[in-house]
């Protein structure tokens, strides 16, 4: 469903600015698809029951999952990398990294602030009309 929204973004009027400024250092304005993508990824990761902390490029603060849905992983991600180029038909994607919680304790931001050697998995999923 999310991919269909992405592919039909022009028809669904999802292309364009959301009226918010991105929290990243560049301060670029968020696109509507940035906001939608972030909502989809956060809901999916939280409902999986596998995550404790989510850190998205689109959010100012980390999201701490409620105890009843909490798992043992921390996920850092940009739900729609390259969205500033989407109007041009350039390929876009999702970039992510996964860490394990340090110990069995209440999640704290330091659980995400780990060296790269502790990363369990990372990846980039590319979407677009020309993914060759």
Automatic annotation (TrEMBL):
Claim: Magnesium is one of the keywords in the record: no
Catalyzed chemical reaction(s): beta-D-fructose 1,6-bisphosphate + H2O = beta-D-fructose 6-phosphate + phosphate
Organism: Trifolium pratense
Record GO biological process: fructose 1,6-bisphosphate metabolic process; fructose 6-phosphate metabolic process; fructose metabolic process; gluconeogenesis; sucrose biosynthetic process
Signal peptide: 1-18
Protein name as catalogued: fructose-bisphosphatase
Keyword entries, A-Z: Carbohydrate metabolism, Hydrolase, Signal
Family: Belongs to the FBPase class 1 family.
